[in-house]
From TrEMBL:
Official protein name in the record: S-adenosyl-L-methionine-dependent methyltransferase
A Pfam family it matches: Methyltransf_23
GO MF entries: methyltransferase activity
Biased composition (Polar residues): 1-27
PANTHER family assigned: ABC TRANSMEMBRANE TYPE-1 DOMAIN-CONTAINING PROTEIN-RELATED (PTHR43591:SF10), METHYLTRANSFERASE (PTHR43591)
Domain of life the protein comes from: Eukaryota
Length: 340
């Protein structure tokens, strides 16, 4: 039976609700199999969906973009290490004071949540993701949940002292709605912190290699994401506007460069660049497979040729490429007005 409008309209208390057809009336003895049905849904989420030899999450059918297999998890963890170096190993920049509840949206392998659990031992860190790829041995104050942040949240309002998101650009379809929920569920006086990367890479003026293929890859990747209804672009202005629109105040913006490759002079940045290069060499194909072959109509061979050129460029020490990284945080006022 398809869902009619009356199925989803709330009915005032005291009035009769429509009687829905039940599964048992359709001849399926579903209740007899409840356990196996639950097990089967759970195991299909745990199993994921396979395409081009890569595994994707099976949470929302057809809406997977980037893999969640071990190769992708390695990419995420190496990228995390490179970003941490650039950010001076700070877990968060927002001046949170003795937080009790922290939420990490799109936790990936859970590495930030685990670090936050250690940095804030008095807090409970709830970390959610579409993919069940988090470790089971974690600090006792960290809990992982498989959940879609774009659905209605069931936590109580005003709960979190800090809501954190890292590198979620390219993942969220409705940012306004997400930030409205973030605002509602942030404690008055609490913070939201976004740690985002713009996926249009930059070749800095000192570069002797123009990075033509790298820039083409970024551009094409962005266009393909657009066809999938997602944007890989972000900026401090955009993030600030998102937060102000829903009611956050005192927005602070910090900007960093994340080098790709060991081209910077400073040892610390060279290390960050090496790690970032390694994460890209590991993960570039996973980032592109679905976008290029499904949304942009490229053949696998065409994609492999482009990626080979990008790898050669990024490995050239004369190619001075980097990703722009933005930290944007804002506070929910002590006496908040809720955005309309
Ligand atoms: C690029 S990864 C970033 C992971 C982690 N924040 C980090 O920086 O290492 C994006 C993560 O967000 C998750 N994700 C995407 N959309 C989501 C949603 N609507 N709700 C929850 N998680 C989501 C993906 O499954 C993926 O693990």
């Amino acid at each position: 039976m398809s869902t009619s409008e009356s199925d989803v309209q709330p009915v005032p208390q005291g009035q009769n609700l429509d009687v829905w057809d039940s599964q048992s009336e359709s001849g399926d003895s579903a209740y007899g199999d409840l356990e196996s049905e639950t097990a089967s849904v759970t195991s299909s989420i745990m199993r994921g969906h396979f395409e081009n030899g890569r595994r994707y999450h099976a949470f929302r059918s057809g809406q997977y973009m980037f893999p969640d297999d071990e190769q992708e998890q390695d990419r995420l963890d190496i990228k995390y290490a490179s970003l941490s170096i650039v950010m001076g190993d700070k877990v968060a920049f927002a001046p949170v004071n003795d937080p009790q509840n922290i939420l990490d949206i799109g936790t990936g392998t859970g590495i930030w949540a685990i670090d936050a659990g250690e940095a804030y031992p008095g807090a409970t860190i709830t970390a959610i993701d579409l993919s069940p790829i988090q470790p089971s041995w974690v600090p006792p104050n960290v809990k992982f949940e498989i959940d879609d942040a774009e659905q209605d949240w069931t936590w109580e309002p005003d709960r979190f002292d800090l809501i954190h998101m890292r590198t979620m650009t390219g993942c969220i379809r409705n940012w306004d709605r997400l930030f409205e929920q973030c605002y509602r569920h942030t404690k008055p006086g609490g913070y939201i912190e976004l740690q985002e990367m713009d996926y249009m890479g930059v070749i800095q003026p000192t570069s002797q290699n123009p990075g033509t293929s790298f820039l083409q890859w970024c551009q094409q990747q962005g266009e393909a994401a657009g066809k999938a209804g997602l944007s890989l672009r972000t900026s401090p202005e955009l993030l600030k506007e998102f937060l102000e629109k829903v009611g956050f105040v005192d927005i602070t913006v910090l900007e960093f460069k994340l080098p790709i490759g060991p081209w910077p002079k400073k040892k610390r940045l060279r290390d960050a660049g090496l790690l970032q290069l390694s994460s890209l060499l590991e993960g570039m194909e996973g980032l592109s497979l679905r976008l290029f072959t499904f949304y942009a109509g490229w053949s696998l061979e065409e994609l492999k040729v482009l990626l080979a050129k990008v790898r050669t460029e990024l490995k050239d020490k004369n190619c001075h490429s980097y990703w722009p990284v933005y930290i944007v945080y804002g506070r929910k006022p002590d006496t908040p007005g809720h955005a309309a």
